[in-house]
UniProtKB/TrEMBL annotation:
InterPro entries: Methyltransf_25 (IPR041698), SAM-dependent_MTases_sf (IPR029063). Residues 69-158 form the Methyltransferase domain. It comes from Larimichthys crocea (Large yellow croaker). This is Methyltransferase domain-containing protein. It comes from the Eukaryota. Coiled coil: none annotated.
Amino acid sequence: MSDCSRTRDDVFTLFQFQIGDELQQTITFYDRWALTYNQDTTLINYRAIHHAVDFLNNHFSGNREEVQVLDVACGSGLAAELMVKLGFRLFVGVDGSKGMLEQAAQTGLYQDLKLALLGPEPLPAPPDTFDVVIMVGALDDGFAPVSVVRELCNAAKPDTRRIWRESCS
Ligand SMILES: C[S@@+](CC[C@H](N)C(=O)[O-])C[C@H]1O[C@@H](n2cnc3c(N)ncnc32)[C@H](O)[C@@H]1O
């Protein structure tokens, strides 16, 4: 999956036929896609992460330099790359794909990156700790189950606002 001459249609086809209902299949897909994920998602104009970060930017009023951000299913680290431009500094990332975590590590923006298969494994995050918990593009069949939302809430500090927003483009 490292062909630079891929078209937008090639990327859609790739996604459509290689993602199934099995989590392990999904993770294998992302491990293989990791190297060209950023390039390919730009090609298909993937905007979900931009929508989520824009929404956060418009609603967050704390001290951005000090708050702890937990980026669940962080993938290649696009959330941190966008959020750092808005003043956020402290990021912990979690993902089930080693290949994607390696890309996230290359951004140099995460204080910590953890490998975990959410659903079968617990979210590796201490309770009542994070000011911002963000998860984009990973709650679906063959991805993370909805029960993970409870774990996201547990990882957030008790007095934080819970904002749930679905976006799929
Ligand atoms: C569409 S990508 C989204 C990545 C990033 N949040 C973004 O918006 O660019 C989905 C990510 O979720 C991860 N993922 C899917 N299911 C997961 C699970 N059950 N546990 C951990 N990671 C998972 C994949 O490895 C992949 O990195």
